[in-house]
Each structure stands twice: as structure tokens, then as C-alpha cells.
Amino acid sequence: MENRFFLVPTTILAQQHYNTLVQRMKDFPVSVEVLSRFRSAAEQKKIIERLKKGSLDIVVGTHRVLSNDVKFKNLGLLIVDEEQRFGVSHKEKIKQLKKDVDVLTLTATPIPRTLHMSLAGIRDMSVLDEPPVDRLPIQTYVLEHNDEIIREAISRELARGGQVYYVYNRVNGIDEIANTVARLVPEANVAFAHGQMHERALEKIMYDFISGEIDVLVSTTIIETGLDISNVNTMIIDDADRLGLAQLYQLRGRVGRSNRTAYAFLMYRRDKMLKEVAEKRLHAIKEFTELGSGFKIAMRDLEIRGAGNLLGAEQSGHMEAVGYDLYCKMLNEAVKSMKGGQAGEEETFETTVDMDMDAFIPATYIKNEVQKLDIYKRIAEIENEEELMDMQEELTDRFGEMPAAVNNLLNIALLKSICHSVYITGLIHRENEVKLVMYPKARLAVERIPQLLTKYQGALKFITQANPYFVYQLSNDRKGRNDPVSIIGSLTTLLEDFKELLALMPVQ
Fold it and tell me: pTM for this structure?
């Protein structure tokens, strides 16, 4: 028999998952237990013994399960919920549990390091972006701290029979904040909670809040994960500029868990000059309000913070200076270098293609700007005929028959890739003439150039200057000169012939 281990970051979330699993498994011969500080020392000892013997099917636990005294007889499946809450040291500890265990990690906002590992193909990733039925986007406001707005927001929520989270992420002074809120809204029953409270006291407050006896819960970020209370649909976050982007997104996700419109107020101190990074975070959280935005939030966080050290412990790193695409390119070159390969100097040049024809995605073809930008990016990455045909098939399937301008764009992208492979830094097309600028350090067999010129019978000329280039005369036929398909076809044939000029690399 195999053990299943459900790892979660907080005791509250552990209890919630435990309750859900007990309910779902009640008709099956499956044993479920929870290992957290809500259990007494005697109860914890008994659960640990059952894990060692293999008589326990599922255990839900916090970091407590990662302690040295916890051993699994036969761990078969590890599920990590809210993966972004666990540090590298925790994940290294998890790896020691068993070498060949199946692992499923769940997160709404993956940390940059994890997200990059997924994008780079190191991990498999599935994205769920369909919201539950009747869910509405959370109305998000970023503003200076204002007692009147706080009073109005709480009163409005209570008037419709709802409850409120007030997030104050400091233990010192949290009781004073709770008293202030109680004075602002005298009719509300206000309580506070934080992680340093005795577990029984914390458990009672959370139970009273879930049962509806508490109207406003002033809390630290311990509510960030685990609470699923459909009646709470207003959240006020104090000093929101001090919190991380993923943290803000997770906190906001505690409201809006029903078919009611939910509200989130992200407040910062009056007259405070926000740091640039904090301003970017608050702008991003306000921008991405639709359900399923966690992946986009994580991508923005990846740009702001960096991907970190994939082989080491750092979970963030400087990327904003170079951008994600260039970062990935640099990373690939570094990996090649570490594997013993040499990133050739001749491969560091850029290739540009300037064609005298329409090549773009019309607004009538792809209306959504985000989708359009994504398609432009993917078209720019086309490297061969097979990828071009795959993109043609996808575009036709998703958006209908392609306009001529889109087809031109695809073919020009392939043309650019071929140009780069034969050391052409620039292709400039004007009317019936095409200029092909060569990379000065290109590895070409120059003795084969006369043979290529002879083949084109005067239509191709080679100009020897400090930066040599070819000039190609297109067909004199007016129809051929104005037909993009004919022009691209002629240039593709020419560039294929250019491959005959490539010098053979010496055998190592």
C-alpha cells in the first residue's frame, strides 16, 4: 500500500483540506489524517507511527511533516498546494522523501523560478483559466488610506449580509487597528487573528468567522491561503505596497468566491512616494482582474523580479534590464557553454528583412490585442517550413481563412530564418531589386561565388566593399514584380542556392 502526502503551507488550509477529504472519502475504505499544530503531541505521535507502518492512506500536513521524525513506509504521491509558499530548502527536503515519487504542485501564482522551469520545458505545466460558473471579476481599487472609504466599504458589505477581511500584516499593533475599525463601524463585530496566537484561540476565531459570528476579521497574511468562505466579498489591504505581487493576488483571491460582485481595496499610506517596483506591482494587480489571471501575474512578476538561479537557491534575479526573451537567449548560450560547446562568434549577429509589401495581422482578423501580440511573437520564431505550415493550419483553424498580408508575414519570417542561416544581416527589397548584405565574418567558401553568379546569368551581382553585398534583380515581368508570392518564391530559391557557399566546418 502506498502513502499519499498532501503538503500545505498553513494549519488553516491543512484543516480545510482534511475536512474536504474526509467528506469525499467517507464512502470509501480510505483513511485520512491531518498533521499540524492543531493536533496534540499524543495525536501527532500516533499519526507518525501509522505513517511508518504504512497503515495510513492520506496525510494532510504542514511543514511539520518535513521534520526528521516523520518517515513514510511507501510514499507514492506527493501533492504540494500553494507551491509558491515553500522555499528552496523545503523543496530540497521534499526531494529526500523518496527519489521516484510522483509529484503534483498546485499554485495560482508560480514563483518566477518555477514558472521559468515550466516555460523552458524542465517541468510539465497545465493552466486552468476557466472560472467556475457565475464567478465575477473582483473590482480592484488602488488608493491612499482613507478612513471614510473603509467605513463605507464595510457598511456596504454588511448591508448585503456579507463579511469583510481587513489585512494588516504586522502582529504589533493589530489589536489597535481592530479597535479603530470597530470605532469606524460600531454595528460590526470585529476580531483579529495572527499566526503567533495560541492554536486553540486561533482555531476558535476562524471557526466563529466561518460560522458568520464575526463580521470583520482583521488579520495578517495568514489568510492568504486556505480560506474558502463564499460570504466574504470585501477585502481591505493596509500598506499594500509592502506586499509581493503573488501575495497580493493570493490575498485578493480570498474574496469573490460566489456569484456576488466582490471588492478589493489596496491602500498605501497618505503622501507616501511609492517605489518603482511597488508601483509596478499595484498596477499589475489592478490590471489583471479577470479570473485565471494568476499565470499572467506570474509572468509579470517574472519580468519584474527575474527567474533566479535555476541550478541554485536564489528564487529571483535581475531580468528587467534585458527582458524575458533576451534572458532566455542568454540562458541557452550559457547552458551550451557549460556543456562544452562554443557559442560561435559568427552566430551573434542580428538579421533584418525589409520587404516592399504588406505583411501584418489586420485588426479585422485577430481582434484581441493580447492574442495578436502572442501570434506576432510566435511567427517571429518560425525557423523552418514545417513550423510555417503548423502556424498556417492553427491560424486558419482559430481565426478563419488568412488574409494575404498574414500569409506574407509568415513567409517573410521563414525568409528571415534562412537569411540568418547563410550569414545575411540585411535583406532590403525595393521594387524589382533586392540587396543582400553579408556578415563580414561569415564562414563562406568565396571561391564558389563566381559559380553562383554564372548560374543567375547577370541577375545576381556581387559588390566587394568593406561590407560586401549582393544585388539581385527580380523578374522584369511586371506581374511577377508585383506579386508577393512570386517575389518570396524567387528569394527562397536564391537563398537555398546561397547554402552552396557555406564553408564546411573542419572535423573535430
Answer: 0.51
How does residue 507 score in pLDDT terms, banded at 50, 70 and 90?
very low
The conformation of residue 223, written as its DSSP 8-state character, comes to G
Domains and CATH numbers, the chain: 3-106 (3.40.50.300), 139-291 (3.40.50.300), 346-501 (3.90.1150.50)
Using only C-alpha atoms, the chain has a radius of gyration, in whole angstroms, of 30
Q: How far apart, in whole angstroms, are the C-alpha atoms of residue 335 and residue 324? A: 16
- The C-alpha atoms of residue 203 and residue 212 are separated, in whole angstroms, by 14
Q: What are 152's three cell numbers?
A: 463605507
pLDDT of 22: 93
Q: Pick from 34, 37, 41, 40: which is nearest to 17 by CA? A: 34
Helix (H, G, I), strand (E, B) or coil at 231: coil
- Per-residue pLDDT for 237 more than 60? yes
Rounded to whole angstroms, how far apart are CA atoms 456 and 310? 51
Across-strand partners of 427? 353, 436
Residue 5 pairs in a beta bridge with: 59, 78
CA 280 to chain CA centroid, nearest Å: 16
> What is the 3-class SS of 239-291, one letter each residue?
CHHHCCHHHHHHHHCCCCCCCCCCEEEEEECCCCCCCHHHHHHHHHHHHCCCC
- Are the CB atoms for 45 and 69 separated by under 8 Å? no
| Mean pLDDT value of segment 286-308 | 52
Each residue of 47-87: pLDDT tens digit?
999 988 888 999 998 888 888 888 888 888 888 887 767 76
340 or 306, greater pLDDT = 340
- Run of H or E including 34: strand 32-35
Q: Tell me, what's the pLDDT at 320?
A: 46
Looking at residue 410, its amino acid is L
Cβ atoms of 44 and 14 within 8 Å: the answer is no
Contact 217, 193 (CB under 8 A): yes
Express each pLDDT in 422-478 by its tens digit. Answer: 888 889 998 888 999 988 888 888 888 888 888 888 888 888 877 888 999 887 655
CB-CB contact of 81 with 11 (8 Å): no
Q: How far apart are CA 242 and CA 252, in angstroms?
A: 15
Residue count (the chain): 508
